[in-house]
Design a protein that fits this description.
- The protein has about 500 residues and is an alpha/beta fold.
- The chain has helices at about 20, 50-55, 55-65, 75, 80-90, 105-110, 120-135, 150-155, 165-180, 195, 200-205, 215-240, 260-285, 290-295, 310-315, 365-380, 405-425, 470-480, 490-495; strands at about 5, 10-15, 100, 140-145, 185-190, 245-250, 255, 320-325, 325-330, 340, 345-350, 355, 360, 380-385, 430-435, 455, 470, 485-490.
- It has one domain (about 5-490): TIM Barrel.
- The longest helix has 26 residues, at about 215-240.
- The structure holds 6-O-phosphono-beta-D-galactopyranose.
- 6-O-phosphono-beta-D-galactopyranose binds near residues 191, 386, 434 and 449.
- 6-O-phosphono-beta-D-galactopyranose (BGP) binds near residues 190 and 434.
């Protein structure tokens, strides 16, 4: 029998984000975050992420006025905050060795600019990482995953204001110091490139607060401040805890040309440069010339402070983490072509691929292409920290969820990953399925777009028992992990 022989240290995990699972949005001293202002709006196409995730100052006011969590999916999540011992026990029973999650910044510094941290918040995350340690699960900790304190948006201008760098570093140093005995892997900012696609839900930027300014230049200035803050985390960890590893994290979009027309290939090549720009800056430590030229052409000038260039250059990421869900096809002229959207990236339909119920095209080979691309570009260890399928799962009368479509998605993607790991000469630290239990979708704020290995009885309007039920995919992953570092090829050949 043939096997995939993998490194003992390879981390098999699951992943989630505080704002999508925790709930407890205003408990134990937590302040309001930008995620608490986003809600499911059935009248908007759930893939029209710009409308769903772009809100104005008036909508912020009504969110502030509403003290309930009813109708605010990310305020209640799946109540992980009160169920995390049991949830982690269930997930530990699959045999995972890693758990990627984020710290809610507003649980630690409720207003973002507080001088002292909220002790209850620190203690919650300390207990959480101790719970993981009980099961020998390695935490992969994201510091900012779309959940910055709302006060930083209202009192400052969010990441556009350089002061946020100072507040973020205060937050980062506080939690790194508090949790350093348990957490060795850190990711400063989730999908740092997402600020371009959804500036509010990613970085708290509200266009009507910048009237008279070119909003695109506001976004790029804010982007620079995020890079500086992330490099500051790398520097702090390397100086203070040399055993720690700090990764950059990007949305991995693999772009194909619609056909071999050189104009389409050129379009795909240029789109890939936009994807690479963010990991280039963090993995190489310099702004790529093509990005500088692109900004010059747009008459966008990023203000750098003395020392910024050196900080970026001397504090590059130790590893390159990324989320992968789908590939995207593009064409120079999209007239008459079917438009698709996957993870907030617009493309054209690829006739060689199937798609999810949300139209995200399913491309396991694209994951292997991504691994080869990224490793060849950076020669740094890679980490797949998100890969999963959002689907409308059904709970049967006898409390089962037969998500064979998710098992198929995971089987095919894990197979391509293992082929790449064993044949393509790459370095890969681990693989985390997105998600853990079901959770609130980042882009649509829906519960019905389910990613979990564990089903949660809750609907888009927050109705349900919150009871948890293991899906068929949970048992499949458990079977896979039981093979340890020697996985029979046949296991990944089988259709579920
Ligand atoms: C990534 C985010 C995650 C997660 C995932 C799935 O971009 O980092 O937070 O949500 O997308 O997307 P969605 O939840 O929008 O279906």
């Amino acid at each position: 029998m043939e096997y995939y022989q993998i490194n003992q240290k390879f981390l098999w995990g699951v992943a989630t984000a505080a704002n999508q699972v925790e709930g407890g949005w205003n408990e134990d001293g937590k302040g309001m975050s930008i995620a608490d202002c986003l809600r499911y709006r059935p009248q908007i196409d759930s893939n029209d992420y710009k409308s769903v995730n772009t809100i104005n100052s008036a909508e912020i006011k009504s969110a502030l006025a509403d003290k309930s969590s009813k109708g605010w999916a990310k305020r209640h999540g799946v109540d992980f905050y009160h169920n995390y011992h049991e949830d982690i026990k269930r997930l530990a029973d699959t045999g995972i060795s890693a758990y990627r999650f984020s710290i809610s910044w507003a649980r630690i510094f409720p207003n973002g600019d507080d001088l002292e941290p909220n002790q209850a918040g620190l203690d919650y995350y300390l207990d959480l990482v101790k719970e993981l340690a009980k099961y020998n699960i390695t935490p992969i900790m994201t510091l900012s995953h779309y959940e910055m304190p709302l006060n930083l948006v209202l009192k400052y201008d969010s990441w556009y204001d350089r002061k946020i760098v100072e507040y973020f570093e205060r937050f980062a140093k506080t939690v790194i110091d508090y949790l350093h005995d348990y957490v060795k892997y850190w990711i400063p900012i989730n999908e740092i490139d997402s600020i371009i696609r959804h500036p509010f839900s990613s970085a708290g930027l509200i266009e009507d607060r910048f009237l008279g300014k070119n909003f695109e230049s506001v976004i790029y200035q804010a982007m620079h401040h995020q890079f500086i803050a992330a490099a500051g985390v790398v520097k702090y960890c390397h100086d203070t805890y040399p055993e720690m590893k700090v990764g950059c994290m990007v949305t991995r979009t693999t772009v194909y040309p619609y056909n071999s027309d050189p104009l389409n290939v050129l379009k795909a090549t240029k789109m890939m440069r936009d994807v690479y720009a963010f990991s280039d800056i963090q993995a190489r430590g310099v702004y790529p010339t093509y990005l500088i030229k692109k900004l010059q052409k747009k008459n966008i000038h990023i203000e750098l402070q003395p020392g910024d260039k050196e900080l970026l250059k001397e504090n590059t990421a130790d590893f390159v983490a990324f989320s992968y869900y789908s590939s995207v096809c593009t064409a120079y002229d999209t007239k008459g072509l079917k438009v698709t959207k996957a993870n907030r990236t617009v493309g054209v339909y690829n006739k060689y691929l199937s798609e999810s119920e949300w139209g995200w095209q399913i491309d396991p080979v694209g994951l292997r292409i991504s691994l080869i691309d990224l490793y060849d570009r950076y020669q740094k260890p890679l980490f797949i920290v998100e890969n999963g399928l959002g689907a409308k799962d059904e709970l049967t009368d006898d409390d089962h969820i037969h998500d064979d479509y998710r098992v198929e998605y995971l089987r095919e993607h894990i197979k391509e990953m293992l082929i790449s790991l064993t044949q393509d000469g790459i370095e890969l630290m681990g693989y985390c399925i997105w998600g853990t239990t079901d959770m609130v979708s980042a882009s649509s704020n829906q519960m019905s777009k389910r990613y979990g290995l564990i089903y949660v009885d809750l609907d888009d309007n927050g109705n349900g028992t919150y009871n948890r039920y293991k899906k068929d995919s949970y048992y499949w992953y458990q079977k896979l992990l039981r093979y340890g570092n020697k996985i029979p090829e046949s296991f990944l050949e089988e259709k579920s």
